[in-house]
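Colleagues,

For the teaching module next term, I've prepared a clean inverse folding example: a structure given as C-alpha cells, and then the sequence designed for it. I'd like students to try predicting residues themselves before seeing the answer, so please don't circulate the second half yet.
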C-alpha cells in the first residue's frame, strides 16, 4: 500500500509549511522515463563492479542519484508497465499477467494513465518502444494519453523477423513468398511478423531489429525537439527492447567477456547516453531523467540473461527453479534505477530508501503541479523528498505480486516490511537448467532478514525469538493490505483473445509482410480485411 512512514509525513508537512519544491521555482519540468527490459540489478556497473559495459549509465549515477533498494511493481512485462503508468498494483488496475498478440483487451479503460494526467496538465506526451498494454481499439497508446507513439505493441520475441538475433532456443526468420517456416518451436512465432507502429499505422512488418535501437534514439530526439519548439513541457516514456531476448546482432564481433549479452548492454548504454545528451542540449536542468528496469533477468535464457548481483535467491536455487524474472525473490523485482536532474537532484548520492516503479506516477504528478485521479487508491508514494535529498525514507510496506511463477497471477503472496521479507508462496519459475522448483505454500510464511541475508538463503527459524517478534507485525500488514485492495475501486482487464485482432499489415502476404525491400512504408489495408481494420483503431 502507498502509506508513507511518519518521517516522510513530517518531511511533507515541512514542505507544505513553506519549503518550495524545485518545480515551484522553475516551472513545469520535462520528464523522461526510460524503462529497460529484463535488466538485472548487476547489469549496472555502478551497482556491480564486474560489469564494465555501462559507462553512460554509471556517469548518470555519478551525476545524480542511484537507488539500490528499488523494485519493479511486478516481475513480468505487462503488469510491471501497467503499474508504472497507473501507480497501482495489478490487483487494483486489473493487469495481472501478460497480454498476447491476439488479446482483445488491455489496461482497463477506466484506469487513468500518467500520460493522461500530464497531458491534462499541459504536457506534450510521447511513448517510444514496447507497449504491451493492449493494441486493439482504444487500448492503443494513442488513446491512453500519448500524443505520439512509435514502437512495437508487445515484446519483440512475439513475432518473427528477418533479423531474429540471439535467443534460446533460437527462432527462425520469417518465411518469405509463401515458403514454410523452418522447424517449428514452441516459443517461436512463425506465422505473424513483428510490427512497427507509428501512431496507429503499421509502417514496417517485420520490423528490422538490427536498426531498432537507432530508430528509437532518432524518434526520441525528434519528439524532444518538437516539444521544445512548441514551448510546452514534455513527458517521454521510452520503453526499450534491451535487454529482452532476442538480443541483436552486434555490428562488430563481441568483445571478450560477456559476449552477445555484453554487446547488447553496451548498445543500450550508448542509447541512454544519447538521450541524456539530447535532453541536456535543450536546457540542462530542465528535464528529470529517470531510468529503471521492468523486472529482473530471464534466467531460463542462460548466457543471454543478465546479472543478478548478490540477489541470487539461494533458498530457491537450492531446491531448483529460477529466482529471477517471474518470481518474488529479490532477483525478480529488485532492479537498477537512477535519477538525473542537474541543479535539482544532488549529485553522487546513493539512496537506500525502499522504493518502487509505483512511485514514478505520484512523484511526477506532484512535480508537474497536477492532481492524482480521484476515487481510487494508489500504491506509490510521492518520493520527491528522496530525490531532492531531504529524506531517505520510502515505503514501510511493499507488496510483491505473483507474476507467472507459482500461485495465482497478481495475488499478493510476498510482502516486505522494513528489512524483513515474508513469502507465502515459492517455486514455479524455470531456471537455465530446465528445473522449475516445486510450488510451495507457506503458512506461516518464510521470513528472511535482508539486512543479514541479502542472498535469501536461510529463513528465520519459526521458533526463534526474532521470528516470533516480527510475525505479528507482518501478519497485520498483510491483512491491512488485502483489506485495502478489497475495498478499493478495482478494475478488471479483458484477457479474451481473437485472432482477428492480431496486428497484420497485409493478411494477403505471408507473415503479414507489408514492406518489400526498397518500397515505401505501407499502412494497414482497411478496405478488404476485417482483421486489419480492427487492428489499428
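(Answer key — instructors only)
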Amino acid at each position: 500500500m502507498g502509506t508513507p512512514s511518519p518521517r516522510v509525513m513530517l518531511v511533507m508537512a515541512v514542505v507544505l509549511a513553506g519549503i518550495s519544491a524545485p518545480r515551484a521555482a522553475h516551472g513545469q519540468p520535462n520528464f523522461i522515463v526510460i524503462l529497460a527490459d529484463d535488466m538485472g540489478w548487476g547489469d549496472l556497473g555502478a551497482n556491480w563492479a564486474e560489469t564494465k559495459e555501462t559507462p553512460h549509465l554509471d556517469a548518470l549515477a555519478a551525476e545524480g542519484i542511484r537507488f539500490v533498494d528499488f523494485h519493479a511493481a511486478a516481475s513480468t512485462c505487462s503488469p510491471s508497465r501497467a503499474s508504472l503508468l497507473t501507480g497501482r498494483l495489478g490487483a487494483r488496475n486489473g493487469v495481472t499477467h501478460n497480454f498476447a498478440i491476439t488479446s482483445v483487451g488491455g489496461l482497463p479503460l477506466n484506469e487513468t494513465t500518467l500520460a493522461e494526467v500530464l497531458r491534462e496538465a499541459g504536457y506534450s506526451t510521447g511513448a517510444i518502444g514496447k507497449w504491451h498494454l493492449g493494441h486493439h481499439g482504444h487500448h492503443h497508446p494513442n488513446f491512453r494519453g500519448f500524443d505520439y507513439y512509435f514502437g512495437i505493441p508487445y515484446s519483440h520475441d512475439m513475432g518473427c523477423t528477418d533479423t531474429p538475433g540471439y535467443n534460446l532456443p533460437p527462432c527462425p526468420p520469417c518465411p518469405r513468398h509463401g515458403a514454410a517456416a523452418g522447424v517449428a518451436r514452441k516459443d517461436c512465432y512463425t506465422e505473424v511478423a513483428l510490427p512497427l507502429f507509428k501512431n496507429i499505422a503499421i509502417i514496417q512488418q517485420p520490423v528490422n531489429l538490427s536498426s531498432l535501437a537507432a530508430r528509437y534514439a532518432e524518434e526520441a530526439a525528434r519528439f524532444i525537439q518538437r516539444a521544445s519548439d512548441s514551448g510546452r513541457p514534455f513527458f517521454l516514456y521510452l520503453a526499450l527492447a534491451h535487454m529482452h531476448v532476442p538480443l541483436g546482432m552486434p555490428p562488430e564481433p563481441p568483445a571478450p567477456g560477456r559476449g552477445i549479452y555484453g554487446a547488447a548492454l553496451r548498445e543500450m548504454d550508448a542509447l541512454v547516453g544519447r538521450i541524456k545528451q539530447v535532453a541536456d542540449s535543450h536546457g540542462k536542468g530542465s528535464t528529470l531523467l529517470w531510468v529503471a528496469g521492468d523486472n529482473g533477468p530471464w534466467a531460463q535464457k542462460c548466457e543471454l540473461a543478465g546479472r543478478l548481483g548478490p540477489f541470487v535467491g539461494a533458498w530457491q536455487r537450492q531446491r531448483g527453479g529460477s529466482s529471477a524474472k517471474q518470481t518474488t525473490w529479490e532477483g525478480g523485482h529488485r532492479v537498477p534505477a537512477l535519477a538525473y536532474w542537474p541543479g535539482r537532484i544532488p549529485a553522487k548520492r546513493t539512496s537506500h530508501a525502499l522504493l518502487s516503479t509505483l512511485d514514478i506516477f505520484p512523484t511526477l504528478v506532484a512535480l508537474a503541479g497536477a492532481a492524482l485521479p480521484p476515487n481510487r487508491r494508489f500504491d506509490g508514494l510521492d518520493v520527491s523528498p528522496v530525490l531532492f535529498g531531504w529524506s531517505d525514507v520510502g515505503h514501510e510496506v511493499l507488496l510483491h505480486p505473483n507474476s507467472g511463477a507459482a500461485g495465482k497471477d497478481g495475488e499478493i503472496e510476498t510482502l516486505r516490511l522494513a528489512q524483513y521479507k515474508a513469502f507465502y508462496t515459492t517455486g514455479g519459475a524455470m531456471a537455465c537448467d530446465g528445473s522449475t522448483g516445486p510450488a510451495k505454500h507457506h503458512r506461516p510464511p518464510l521470513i528472511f532478514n535482508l539486512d543479514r541475508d541479502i542472498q535469501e538463503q536461510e529463513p528465520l527459524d519459526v521458533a526463534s525469538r526474532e521470528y516470533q517478534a516480527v510475525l505479528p507485525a507482518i501478519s497485520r500488514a498483510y491483512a491491512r493490505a488485502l483489506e485495502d485492495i478489497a475495498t478499493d475501486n478495482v478494475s478488471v482487464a479483458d484477457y479474451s483473445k481473437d485472432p482477428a485482432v492480431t496486428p497484420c499489415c497485409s493478411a494477403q502476404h505471408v507473415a503479414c509482410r507489408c514492406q518489400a525491400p526498397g518500397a515505401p512504408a505501407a499502412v494497414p489495408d482497411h478496405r478488404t480485411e476485417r482483421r486489419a481494420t480492427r487492428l489499428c483503431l
